[in-house]
């Protein structure tokens, strides 16, 4: 490690629930809910794909090593990663989804449906989005509310959590939401706001997926995440982000 790099402390994310700092090649994660770190440590030990090395843990802090490469992209801007890199990400995710389930419970379908109802009510009462946008996306989201065969999912597979070097996946980070769950959810979160890269992703994952369910998760995730983002200092109305995803469904009567 370059010693000069250790003099700089970068705040990666900070809000009332958790904070992540970077010092050189070390990430220090501090979380008010110790269960998040418990899941992260256990999930990374079980995942059959590249994950960061754990350097030490002293609750409530967890230190992990940076992974090499760069993120597959960022929400709100076109991904500069190659089609082969996206396919490699798809192959890695398929390997994860085919692995034995982690031995802790995932979210129940009824809980997902209840959260969707609650968040749609908030979006309507707050006026954060036009009622027609909320209503239309609520209709599209229904397709995700069906029984699924549980898979080992990452649970928060944002595009910034998958790192590549050229056409190779070098690491997947932030595993605190890992659990048994719907495989289509992971595929949707990774392509949220980057719908044009779904074909590239599926070239590596396999095309035996339900694209309508993936589209439904784009709407459901955007509807349910928006209030949390607003209340924690993020902007879902930034170009290319959640509100744009929801508005884009209005441009296609099929929600595609």
UniProtKB/TrEMBL annotation:
SUPFAM superfamilies named among the record's database cross-references: Protein kinase-like (PK-like) (SSF56112)
Pfam assignment, any one: APH
Domain Aminoglycoside phosphotransferase: 10-215
Protein name: Phosphotransferase family protein
